[in-house]
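[step 3/7] inverse_fold.run input=structure_tokens len=210
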């Protein structure tokens, strides 16, 4: 889905802050959030749904909160939606407001057919479909409508867009597509820089748009 979480290539946010402390957790509560997510079978069983719960955060909250607060908000939202707890219980335990993500407005696509035979091979030129679904997608906004070259055929994988919204296992060929930075960002790109993005076949079309 389009949102503030998809920041690739966007200008106006200033320099990227770099923390010289390379430890995975800055504070102990972050470690506990990590344990909560990976230790709970109902919460970790559907990674695309977890990602989408973070995408649904209020934009202001997303941009002003640290990484593991995104995890906490997503995990808490999914727990409430699954009936494992309530907002009232969370606020009682927190001693105040406990922000949750917005409701899931994603819908399943019409195409729920699994595919296993790749249409494209290494070296084929492709173009990413320019589409903006209301729900989860693994096609970053900055590659949509852009032309690239298939660099690797990974095989097949469950389509995140479908699994995130309760559609179960629907497979699609999965590719690594190479883009020049000039193609993605025009004059902001470099002459010898490339970006590889993993994309499902249903995101792609022939480079001439057929």
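[step 3/7] decode complete -> sequence:
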């Amino acid at each position: 889905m389009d949102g503030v979480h998809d920041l690739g290539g966007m200008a106006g946010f200033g320099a990227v802050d770099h923390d010289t402390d390379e430890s995975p957790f800055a504070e102990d509560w972050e470690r506990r959030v990590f344990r909560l997510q990976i230790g709970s079978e109902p919460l970790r069983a559907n990674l695309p749904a977890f990602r989408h719960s973070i995408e649904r955060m209020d934009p202001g909250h997303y941009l002003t909160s640290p990484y593991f607060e995104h995890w906490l908000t997503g995990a808490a939202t999914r727990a409430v939606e699954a009936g494992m707890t309530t907002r009232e219980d969370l606020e009682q335990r927190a001693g105040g407001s406990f922000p949750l993500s917005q409701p899931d407005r994603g819908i399943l696509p019409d195409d729920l057919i699994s595919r296993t035979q790749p249409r494209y091979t290494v070296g084929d030129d492709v173009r990413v479909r320019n589409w903006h679904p209301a729900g989860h997608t693994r096609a970053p906004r900055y590659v949509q409508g852009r032309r690239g070259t298939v660099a690797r055929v990974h095989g097949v994988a469950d389509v995140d867009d479908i699994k995130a919204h309760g559609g179960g296992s629907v497979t699609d060929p999965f590719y690594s597509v190479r883009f020049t930075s000039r193609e993605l960002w025009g004059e902001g790109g470099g002459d010898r820089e490339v970006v590889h993005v993993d994309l499902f076949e249903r995101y792609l079309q022939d480079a001439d748009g057929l």
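[step 4/7] annotate
The first helix runs from residue 28 to 39.
The helical segments are 28-39, 41-44, 47-55, 59-63, 67-81, 87-94, 160-163, 181-185.
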